[in-house]
Amino acid sequence: MIDPFGKKAKETLAEFESMNNFLRLIPNYLDIEVALDRVRWVKEGKIPEYILNLDDLRDLMSFYALLGALAFSPYGIEMELVKKANLEIYRRKISQSFDLDNLAIPIVLAGKDEIPKGDAVILEKRLEDALPEEEKEELRLKYKIHLKNLLSLSSKELSEYYIRGGYAYLTKGQLKELWESAFERNLERAVNLFYELREELPSYYLELYNRLSEIAREHFKERLERIGGEAQPLRFELFPPCVRIALSGVGSGLRNYAITVLLTSFLSYARICPNSQRRDVRVKDCIKDMSIIEKEILPIIIEAGNRCNPPLFEDQPNEIKNIWYHLGFGFTMTPTLEDSGSSTWYFPPNCSKIRANAPELCKPDKDCRYIKNPLTYYLRKLYIESKKAEGKE
Length: 393
Ligand code: SF4
Prior knowledge:
Elements: H1 7-14, H2 19-29, H3 32-40, H4 49-52, H5 56-70, H6 77-96, E1 107-109, H7 117-123, H8 133-139, E2 143-146, H9 147-153, E3 162-164, E4 167-170, H10 172-197, H11 203-219, H12 221-227, H13 241-247, H14 255-272, H15 283-286, H16 291-306, H17 312-315, H18 319-326, H19 351-357, H20 374-392
Helix pairs in contact: 2-5, 3-5, 3-11, 5-6, 5-11, 6-11, 13-14, 14-16, 14-18
The structure holds iron/sulfur cluster.
């Protein structure tokens, strides 16, 4: 299998009727160690031959097992490692047996005479006899992609491409770059889909996630030491639209949902426990004292409540107890850290729930396309920002 999102992969997966079925079957057929071997090799730098030669079904199973594990914590270092390792595995497979039809990317072969001779002579250096044939082959604009697809996949300037008649013409190198970007996007989409199913996944995936996490922590040890763990100050500019609307204060019909249900869960998980693998996690599992909640999270919630019309906590002073309840401390005004676990620490509702219960809060922007939960929106943006910062360094 050269692309786990390509045509052949889709045909194989269709035999299992649903992705849910496929994920349920994997634990019966695949040893966790095989899935882990897909990432473990990064340390030594050499992909095990047997991983490159797995039959199609085992290749898909071991790859999707990792994605199932990522459902417990998308956009962390684990996803970064899975992306990096598997991108390299499939890159190797593609270079060993290139097959355009089986790549998950909307690119087709360009017609023979679609590029005017004059342009082709310049761009493909056709008349430079001294240039080795392999180099000329690399310069050939053999493929084309519709501009709208190019714009959604490439972060480069359009001037980097030869454009004609609504298409960008590509060399094989450019095609591979775009395929990589499509691969990353497809991987994120799949993980976001599995994120919704994570409560139903067999324990195999949580075990796999924990093992994967150990390998990722070892691999990114230096970076983790530099940033000092995972919980970071909140980055308001990266919040999803629904949370920004809740923060700005809303009307009376919406305020309890916006403040107590959405904002309280979102801010607390985003600040204290962004990558929780379990939904039964308690605040005391993530922090050592109450200061983050009392000095950072609660003031933001109260200010947002005060911005509501009419102000939420003036009207309903007991709603503060409900905030503590939603944070898992029980219905109280005077919680201690030890009380956490007295009630459920509510997880941010999925986008589908927000749209059903408070449609006025959901004003999706372009980044909402990739996610199913406001917290994953935020984690994804944090991930993209950290990649940008790394690029600058
Ligand atoms: S799609 Fe989800 S994250 Fe985006 S605004 Fe709607 S509820 Fe919020």
